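Hi all, long-time lurker, first post. I run a small reading group and we've been trying to get comfortable going from sequence to structure in the token notation. Rather than ask abstract questions, I figured I'd post a concrete chain and ask someone more experienced to write out its structure so we can walk through it together at our next meeting. Sequence below, copied exactly:
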Amino acid sequence: MQRPTEARNEIGPLLEALIVQLDEEGSATQRAYFNRIRNTLDNARDDLELANPIMALSTSTAVGFHFSSDADVLIVRILEKAKRLARELEATLATYH
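-- Answer (accepted) --
Happy to help. Here is the structure in token form:
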């Protein structure tokens, strides 16, 4: 349960700031996308449940959204943290198999 709490503490505030920024910009589709990820992150209770929002964040650039410079700064910071957590999760989940 430690890693989901760590992820919420590290990524949650950045995601919230991004959601607010996207809302202010009128980017409803992007806001909804990241809000769903935020909700999944908030509900993660173990590494397996945490894998879904982290992978969604890690692959979010492939969705093809275009962001303002303000939102892009937040995205870059979120992706840095998500990539680090994804590497940790890959190592942990490999031991489950």
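A couple of things your group might point at:
The chain has one domain: 2-94.
The mean pLDDT is 91.
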